[in-house]
Design a protein that fits this description.
heparin-binding; mainly beta; 6-stranded mixed sheet; Ig-like_dom; Interference hedgehog; disulfide bond; Ig_sub2
Length: 757
């Protein structure tokens, strides 16, 4: 539980500041292409200092979870870190990430690609092409581009005897206008990786033959695999970066030379042999076609886009044992990005209660270990983008260990049936304060506050709910911007949920629970984290109440179903009930999202109750289920024992036999007291009048004894002592006849009074 409290502090203090800068990074490691023998430095920086900054890496072609730790160098204040990588011949293309740690939670940066500058000719074959074209046509020839990082620069050459004459081909495409027989010959290409300073002659050869032809049909002289790539649907595709250049050559020939027409999506663009568009934008995407006299070649032109998310991730409050759903919006990019999810830098995969897709991460059963930062990454060949959300896990019940410094958890054992009556063991019951409340939105102006309390300690008479408006920057547990306000209703000790209305939307609030105990003292629980009451919100589907059955004079068993098909996960359910004959407010009980049944206790016998159920999420509650009712059993009268007894604190009537027994005991006690008092008065009347009666030095003539311990009378147990509403009885001695202030010592007269928080 201590780790959970630390996590709450970190999430409340660190993340609001980090959220303003995209989860805390002011500098990401940048992707780089480097040749063998080079030295690469990756740098990363955060705005909020972390506990530590670390690095990890993995080969680019490995699985997503195959990350390996690597040592970097961080500055003293943990604001920045750097990693130096020596690029060697065996160094693979890799990804590098830095991780910022804040206690038990962590957030990772966008990964940087380290690409080794090299060329690969494994897919280039020694192909021989023979191309025959008519005279006076425009000839366009392409080389098959090898795999290279960065992309290779292509240059054409032509055999001229025993030498290879370099040709002017600025875009890597050979264009010969108005060809003649002198242009016939053998052509080839070279590829140069300018970063690695590596030039390789490609194995393909093209034999061009320019000849006289009679009237012939138009045709394309190159196959489609030379002028583009085919997608999964078989369409010829060309990808262009935003602000890059689109260059298309038609390559049609005929006798006479054909007249070329370029169109985009059926709209005519130009009549030239080539089509250039620069800079290329999203508006330039489409189907481009080159046609002439019945022959046509089309390209599907798409814009290359780095990944991005449309919509933002919303933080989620989940109850332990319930479900949680984190949504990151919709990923976009070209090529279509791959999406993966991280929780505190660890990959979340499908299986073992986790379902992940491109937009949502769903955890079927939330545990405390799931609290932290959820990141959704979308990556393609152009880079990565991520969004992030905070997943807060509310425990089922806060352990008493959280309060051990003030009120240690005490187990009060049952006395054995046979014990020493002269020296009985004494146990002091303590006031164990209520848990930190969980808050969920009910409407634009109301919330539901739920809590729990330990079974040990002094009995609780009733609860009070207090709330206060806080500022956006109030992260401290006790920090508020306004006065605490107390709801007027005294909440019975067996009720642990209460609705607060009359709030203002789009503001932050904190809530806390006070318990009033059997000794008329009270204790305040810890205040909730800041809760933002937002407008609107998606509601989960309403549950279906299937069964309402009385099980005793004081309890009713209810059951319901919930399909969850509405898209919004239910974090829990509220059960409302009241007597059918009552027009007052409903009593409320809160249960977790996995519950489908509940026993309502502390009911009155032989009374009809109406019940309804409502599902809720952190954003909004569902509609109510249909109302169903049931009547508790009649109370069993007589002295015989029954199988079901009225629970402690129940408003149910006691059996007549119990009333007779209690009345008889009280009568006997009263008679004995009267006899004792009469005997004492008689003995005192027989005393001689001249007998001197001693008067204690610390008292007065009328027998007044000052209180050694101050006793405070207050109309409101929630009221702090020292105000106008409290009066300490030990200060009232001056009202006694014949007493003197100087004659009455009381060491605590000006001592500290008991405080009510």
């Amino acid at each position: 539980m201590g780790a959970f409290l630390l996590l709450q502090i970190v999430l409340g203090v660190i993340l609001p500041a980090a959220a303003k800068i995209g989860m805390g990074f002011t500098k990401y490691p940048e992707s780089v292409t480097a040749p063998v023998g080079d030295e690469v430095t990756f740098e990363c920086a955060v705005e909020v200092p972390g506990e530590k900054l670390t690095w990890r890496w993995k080969p680019a072609d490995s699985q997503e979870e195959d990350w390996r730790q690597v040592e970097g160098v961080s500055d003293r204040d943990s604001l920045s870190t750097r990693l130096v990588v020596d690029v060697k011949e065996e160094t693979p293309n890799s990804l590098y990430q830095c991780i910022a740690w804040y206690g038990a939670i962590s957030v990772v940066s966008i990964p940087a690609w380290l690409t080794i500058a090299r060329m690969d000719l494994s897919k280039n074959t020694a192909e021989r092409r023979v191309i025959a074209v008519p005279l006076r046509n425009t000839v366009v020839l392409h080389c098959k581009e090898p795999m290279s990082e960065p992309p290779a620069v292509l240059n054409w050459w032509k055999e001229d005897g025993k030498i290879k004459k370099q040709l002017d081909t600025p875009h890597g495409v050979l264009v010969l206008h108005n060809v003649s027989t002198a242009d016939s010959g053998v052509y080839g290409c070279t590829a140069t990786n300018e970063l690695s300073v590596q030039t390789i002659e490609l194995p393909e050869r093209t034999y061009l033959k320019v000849q006289h032809e009679g009237n012939g049909a138009e045709r394309f002289i190159e196959s489609e695999d030379y002028v583009g790539k085919k997608d999964d649907d078989g369409a010829l595709t060309v990808s262009v970066k935003i602000d890059g250049a689109l260059r298309l050559w038609c390559g049609a020939v005929g006798t006479p030379p054909p007249r070329v027409v370029w169109t985009r999506d059926g709209v005519t663009l130009s009549n030239r042999d080539a089509l250039f568009i620069q800079p290329f934008t999203l508006r330039d995407e489409g189907i481009y076609s080159c046609s002439t006299n019945g022959v046509r070649r089309s390209w599907k032109v798409v814009a290359l886009l780095p990944p991005h998310w449309e919509g933002s991730a919303d933080s989620v409050n989940a109850s332990e044992g319930g479900s949680a759903k984190v949504t990151c919006g919709l990923p976009y990019g070209q090529p279509a990005p791959a999406v993966h999810w991280l929780l505190n830098a660890e990959l979340m995969r499908n299986g073992k209660g986790v379902k992940a897709n491109d937009t949502d991460l769903y955890i079927e059963r939330v545990e405390k270990k799931h609290a932290g930062i959820v990141q959704c990454f979308a990556c393609n060949t152009l880079g990565c983008a991520f969004d992030a959300a905070i997943l807060t896990v509310v425990p089922v019940q806060i352990s008493d260990q959280d309060y051990s410094a003030e009120t240690p958890k005490i187990h009060i054992p049952q006395l054995p049936k046979r014990h020493n009556k002269k020296n009985p063991r004494k146990h002091k019951a303590v006031m164990i304060r209520p848990s930190r409340p969980n808050v969920t939105r009910m409407s634009d102006e109301s919330v539901m506050v739920s809590w729990s309390n330990a079974k040990e300690g002094l009995p609780i008479q009733f609860f009070k709910v207090q709330y206060s408006e806080v500022s956006n920057s109030s992260n401290s547990t006790n920090s508020t911007s306004g006065q605490w306000q107390t709801a007027n209703y005294d909440i019975p000790s067996y009720i642990h949920a209460f609705e607060i209305d009359g709030l203002v939307p789009d503001r932050y609030y904190k809530f806390r629970i006070a318990a009033v105990y059997s000794n008329q003292d009270n204790k305040m629980g810890r205040s909730s984290p800041r809760f933002y009451l937002q407008r609107g919100g998606q509601s989960p589907q309403a549950p279906v109440l299937t069964k309402v059955t009385a099980t005793s004079p004081y309890s009713i068993q209810i059951e319901w179903t919930w399909s969850g098909s509405g898209g919004v996960e239910a974090e829990g359910f509220y059960v409302y009930y009241r007597a059918v004959s009552s027009a007052g407010a409903y009593e409320k009980v809160s249960v977790g999202g996995g519950a489908r049944a509940l026993t309502l206790d502390h009911l009155a016998p032989d009374t009809a109750y109406e019940v309804k159920v409502q599902a809720y999420s952190a954003q909004a509650p569902s509609d109510f289920s249909a109302i169903r009712d049931a009547k508790t059993h009649k109370s069993v009268a007589g002295g015989a024992s029954t199988s079901t007894e009225a629970p402690r604190g129940t408003p149910a009537e006691r059996a007549p036999a119990a009333l007779v027994t209690a009345g008889g005991a009280l009568g006997v006690t009263a008679i004995l007291l009267i006899l004792v008092v009469t005997l004492l008065l008689c003995r005192r009347a027989k005393r001689p009048n001249k007998e001197k009666v001693s008067v204690p030095e610390t008292g007065s003539g009328n027998g007044y004894m000052p209180a050694k311990v101050p006793i405070t009378i207050t109309a409101n147990p929630m009221h702090p002592e020292g105000g106008e509403a409290g009066v300490e009885m030990s200060f009232l001695h001056n009202n006694n006849t014949g007493s003197s202030d100087e004659a009455i010592p009381h060491s605590r007269k000006n001592g500290p009074a008991r405080q009510y928080v």
